[in-house]
Every structure is written in structure tokens, then in C-alpha cells.
Amino acid sequence: MTKFAPVTPMELFSITNSFKDGKAPGADNIPISVIKKSIDVISDPLLSLINLSLSSGTFPDKLKIAKITPILKTGDACLVQNYRPISVLPAFSKIFERVVYNRIFKFITDNNILCSNQYGFRPGHSTSHASISFVNKVSNAVDSNNYLAGVFLDLSKAFDTLDHAILLQKLEIYGVTGVAHKWITDYFSNRKQFVLVNESKSCLCNQICGVPQGSILGPLFFILYINDLSNCSNKLCSILFADDTSLFSEHKDPNILINQLNCECQKVSDWLRANKLSINVSKTKLIIFRPRQRSLPNISSLTIESHVVE
Questions:
Q1: How large a percentage of the chain has pLDDT more than 70?
Q2: CA nearest 134: which of 150, 110, 158, 112?
Q3: Whole-prediction pTM value?
Q4: Angle 285-288-292 (CA atoms, 0-180°, nearest 5)?
Q5: Partner of 164 for a Cys bridge, out of 46, 86, 155, 188, CB 3.0 to 4.6 A?
Q6: CA neighbor of 263 nearest in space, from 247, 243, 252
Q7: H-helix segments, 117-253
Q8: Confidence (pLDDT) at 213
């Protein structure tokens, strides 16, 4: 895909009307409800702006500003770490993004780019499908009288640490080139954010990595970013739900299983490091499933990045 197809008036109306009312406005203070009510009047200039953006490979800088509102999760209100940052983007940016999302998703679907074991942020896939796949893996291993080891990885702030240069390189390899690639490059360039507390607003700060929180394209870019994780080992099966990553291996001998797991998890660790993602080892867990008639002998530990996995 070297360019994006232009938007039609019918598609623009459909996209605009698909957004729900009541969402908080972004930095421009324009709620989506106002855009929906005035779409008959503004559709022509908006259509021209979107199509100019697609044909020129540029994304308006004014639509790259995120408004961050900190919401207290729990505990002491004086501690910054007890707050969850809620990011709100301009409503117009989401219209631009939905247009591009539709085109990129069609391209990756038509070309079968996403791995089959990715269940996150895909129509027709859900946590239920991921759970069924997991149960089937355990059942099949137990029925074969094998031990099955499941490693449930916890990635640290994966969406926030995604490296833009690596993502752009991967998209080019997948076939997103030309003006389409230029548009995505510009989409990540010069992004800014500010924090709003009551009526006080911070200065604008640059967002140099990660996908924009609250964006439509962010989750799609992330699953493309992590798409080749399963290629780093041909002995591990994986179940992915965005950044929730589970790895599985089975063997009749539990000691051979753990040794194999240590070797293959090193490859996964190397892949994560190369892609500038990190494992939170303290929240990563190992579960060994066994046939009912077989006990689990003393086995060696699974070690990831010099830490023993619980």
C-alpha cells in the first residue's frame, strides 16, 4: 500500500455518526456532539481537509495535542504514582484516524499480515477466543500425558514505550510505503501533551515514544509492532491479547521442559530488548499443568533476565 484511497461523503457521514456523544472534548474544547450536529454544514471543507491530508502524507499538528487529566486510583492523593493519566484527543483527530484505520486494517486483513494467535483489537476476536485457545492447549497436552508450562508475561508500560522508528520500519516491511508511510511518520512527529488539573494547565511537552493514549490508531499500531514476537521461537506457542502475552511449551519430561523453556524465553527476552520493550519479572508467572496421574518432581527454576520467575 503506497497511498490511501480518498474519503467519500458517505464514508465521512458514517464515521462521524458512529462516534458516541458525551465524550469529553480535547484541547480544542469541541465535543463530538457539536461536530455530529453540524456535519451537514462542515462536511465539504472537512472532506477536503481529510483528502488533502491523505494525498500529501501530512497530519495536522493541531490534532496531535493530547489533554491529560490525572484521576486518583487509590491511596494517598499527594502521591503522583497513585494517579492514572487519562488522555483525551481532539474529536476531529479521531475522524482522521478512523479513515486511516479503515484503510490500514483492510490492507493487513487482505494480505493476512496479523498472526493468527493475536486476539486483541481485532473484529471477530475476543478474550473468550483467547481463553478457549488456552483451555484447548492445556487439554491437548494433558490428554497426551504431557506436562505443559505456561509463562504469563507482564510487559512494563508497553503501549507507552513503543519505539516509533522501529514501528515505521516494520510497517515498511509489511508493505506500507510511499505516501501512506509518510502520513504515519508525520502522525507520530511533533506530538505534544499537557496536563490539566482543575483550571490549571501545564506547558506543552513532547511525546517522543509510545502510541497516543485514547487514539483509534494506537491499538492497531501496537498489535502490528508486536506481531512478529511469535517468530522468535519455533518451540513456543503464544497467545497474544495486545500486550498480554502468554507462552506455552510441553514435554513428557518436566526437567527437559524447563530447560527448553529457559532457552526459548531467552530468545523472547532478546526480542523484547531489541524492540525496546521490557518485562516486569515480578509480575510474570509460571504455571505447570500436569496430567492428574502424574506428580511434579523437583525441577530447576525458570529464569528471565537473571530473575527467578514465581
A1: 100
A2: 150
A3: 0.91
A4: 150
A5: 188
A6: 247
A7: 127-143, 158-161, 164-174, 178-188, 217-225
A8: 85
